[in-house]
Design a protein that fits this description.
Blueprint (H helix, E strand, L loop, with lengths): L1 H16 L12 H17 L2 H28 L1 H5 L5 E4 L5 E7 L4 H17 L2 E7 L5 H17 L1 H13 L6 H10 L4 H7 L3 H16 L7 E4 L2 E3 L5 H15 L1
Parallel strand pairs: 2-3
Antiparallel strand pairs: 1-3, 2-4, 4-5
Helix pairs in contact: 1-2, 1-3, 5-11, 6-7, 6-9, 6-10, 8-9
């Protein structure tokens, strides 16, 4: 019977290329379906690599679809990502590509990312950095972010960067005493910063960043946007540099 000889080949083709080449089971009789099922089982037992190949192709297609969807999300939210008017900007402010980092001071991987981001900025020299405060790991994270944002609003960008770095290196609990110790050590006005921590402006900035993260389907830190690419999770500097160069090549 043609079905007996054709079924294994058609099955393999359908597993690899998709449903467009699949057999129409609805057109088969019950006997033909039973025979086909037996042939399928025999074929897969003799050729298990077909399943692995099909799974690999499916994963590649899914990854490509997710990457395309992420690019669309980045494009749709570009203004909020790259020019929100309140997030701290560092690196090369005139760089030809922007790296946006969503971070949480209590996140271990965010701390691991610090030297990687620094290495990236030093090795490239043409990357603009935007830091977005996304406190998602509990009350301590929120307190730390409120303190950092209040510092920026009260004392400016340079003071913010100093506090930002200090908080990422700080392993204790962010109580008022310990936060005052940090700002006092940096010669900042601790009273003014602490007083501003619960202001509407600080609350609004955190709320805006959380809303943006939801639109981008960001659920963990660190998360990065590098040019047009969404990077969900920690990456070493060399991989981010490759991605940056790839984005530049796409942009011409």
């Amino acid at each position: 019977m043609i079905l007996r000889h054709a079924a294994p080949a058609l099955l393999g083709l359908s597993l690899i290329t998709g449903p467009a080449h699949a057999l129409d089971l609805n057109a088969m009789s019950d006997a033909e379906k039973a025979e086909f099922g037996a042939q399928v089982r025999e074929y897969l037992l003799e050729n298990p690599e077909v399943i692995i190949e099909a799974i690999n192709i499916l994963e590649e297609r899914n990854a490509a679809a997710e990457a395309a969807a992420d690019k669309d999300l980045v494009a749709a939210n570009a203004d909020e990502l790259f020019n929100d008017g309140y997030s701290w900007v560092g690196g090369n402010p005139d760089g030809d590509i922007t790296l946006v980092e969503f971070m949480d001071y209590r996140c271990g991987y965010c701390r691991r990312a610090v030297p990687e981001v620094a290495t990236l900025l030093e090795s490239d020299g043409n990357i603009r950095l935007v830091i977005k405060e996304l406190p998602i790991l509990g009350d301590a994270s929120v307190v730390s972010s409120r303190f950092a944002i209040a510092t920026k609003q009260v004392a400016g960008d340079d003071a913010y960067k100093q506090v930002h770095d200090a908080l990422l290196a700080f392993s204790g609990e962010p109580s008022e005493v310990t936060l005052r110790r940090i700002s006092d050590g940096l010669g900042l006005d601790s009273d003014a910063i602490v007083a501003a921590m619960d202001s509407d402006e600080v609350t609004e900035e955190i709320a805006n960043t959380r809303a943006l993260a939801q639109k981008l389907r960001i659920s963990g830190t660190p998360s990065f946007v590098l040019g047009t690419e969404m990077l969900r999770g920690f990456l070493p500097a060399d991989q981010m540099l490759q991605i940056a160069n790839g984005v530049r090549a796409e942009q011409g």
